């Protein structure tokens, strides 16, 4: 469990520098009476408050550097779907507030939940200064339409996501759904974010030429093997497609530009191995990780994210076998020099379409 948290933490910490630059941009325009931050797709584990801690620390540091004389008030909203276990997150807050008080005296950070889909409106107009989201926007609002023929035949037979054997119309259906969802996401945030406010978004992505999301394809291969052995109903497998999409950087740029509400300020990619961060734990715990341990770690990461949706469709009884097989396949996959997750982080700023842009952290006419 803690290995899984460390992988998620590694992703979040990778984007800290971009978060800091994004916060600097609007803080240099002057500190508002209350800075409003939002973390969308926060989930409910201990890492749910990690982005909050990072952002609050950055704002506090900038307040001192810029000699801000106003009382510093920070409002943070945690967002996820209505079924998210927010109570688990709230139980972490007392220790978080104590940590803030130890560092800076009287607490001035106020945290609340905003349940709902981030593909719809969440906040009042022009009320949020920065929106952060990590590893959430590859989730689509629904399974793409057009994955079955008019006669009911599955177009993506034997797969649960875009795979090397998927026909082109499956690729197209997934992209169309992502394009619709992400455009809608940007449009909703443009209503809610203040002028010159920021978005910092981290996605799992693919190369512009190659899919690069083999971990989802490998899960489909594992399920297909179990179907061949009679452990999974073939008809159930044929009807199942993950509501996920990993865009390319080119696709992201195109959608952002076409929607038009935000200026793309930064776009950076970074790669992580499927077993990233195990070495850090081995140092702390004096543990040498063999192939079995690595298989358990990789399978555990996938299981933490995908199990609930898989249980709903295939039932709970196959889960242990499925992820044990998946872990073994993943190790063999990595032996062939594969097993890389490609990530992209984008920093966007809401701009005035009448003609303003950023220059050295300031808004200037163009």
Automatic annotation (TrEMBL):
Highest taxon, organism lineage: Eukaryota
Protein name: Caffeine synthase MTL3
Organism: Nicotiana tabacum (Common tobacco)
Gene name, Swiss-Prot/TrEMBL: LOC107798856
């Amino acid at each position: 469990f803690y290995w899984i948290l460390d992988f998620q933490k590694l992703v979040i910490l990778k984007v800290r520098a971009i978060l800091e630059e994004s916060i600097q941009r609007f803080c240099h325009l002057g500190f508002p009476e209350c800075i409003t931050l939002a973390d969308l797709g926060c989930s409910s584990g201990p890492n749910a408050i990690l982005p909050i801690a990072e952002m609050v620390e950055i704002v506090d540091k900038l307040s001192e550097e810029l000699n801000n004389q106003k009382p510093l008030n920070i409002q943070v909203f945690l967002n996820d779907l209505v079924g998210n276990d927010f109570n688990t997150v709230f139980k972490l807050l007392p220790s978080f507030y104590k940590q803030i008080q130890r560092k800076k005296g009287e607490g001035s950070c106020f945290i609340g939940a905003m349940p709902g889909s981030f593909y719809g409106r969440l906040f009042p107009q022009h009320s949020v200064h920065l929106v952060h989201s990590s590893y959430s926007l590859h989730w689509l609002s629904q399974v793409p339409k057009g994955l079955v023929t008019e006669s009911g035949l599955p177009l993506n037979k034997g797969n649960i996501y875009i795979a090397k054997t998927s026909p082109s119309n499956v690729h197209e259906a997934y992209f169309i759904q992502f394009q619709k969802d992400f455009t809608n996401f940007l449009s909703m945030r443009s209503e809610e974010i203040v002028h010159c406010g920021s978005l910092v978004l981290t996605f799992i992505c693919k190369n512009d030429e190659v899919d690069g999301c083999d971990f989802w394809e490998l899960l489909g291969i594992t399920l297909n093997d179990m179907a061949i052995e009679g452990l999974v109903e073939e008809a159930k497998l044929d009807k199942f497609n993950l509501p996920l999409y990993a865009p390319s950087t080119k696709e992201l740029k195109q959608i952002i530009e076409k929607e038009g509400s935000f200026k793309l300020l930064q776009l950076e990619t970074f790669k992580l191995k499927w077993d990233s961060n195990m070495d850090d734990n081995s140092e702390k715990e004096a543990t040498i990780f063999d192939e079995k341990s690595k298989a358990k770690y990789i399978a555990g990461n996938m299981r933490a994210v995908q199990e609930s949706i898989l249980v709903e469709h295939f039932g709970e009884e196959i889960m242990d076998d499925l992820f044990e097989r998946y872990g073994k396949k993943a190790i063999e996959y990595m032996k062939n020099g594969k097993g890389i997750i490609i990530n992209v982080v984008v920093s966007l700023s809401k701009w005035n379409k009448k003609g303003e842009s950023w220059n050295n952290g300031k808004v200037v006419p163009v």
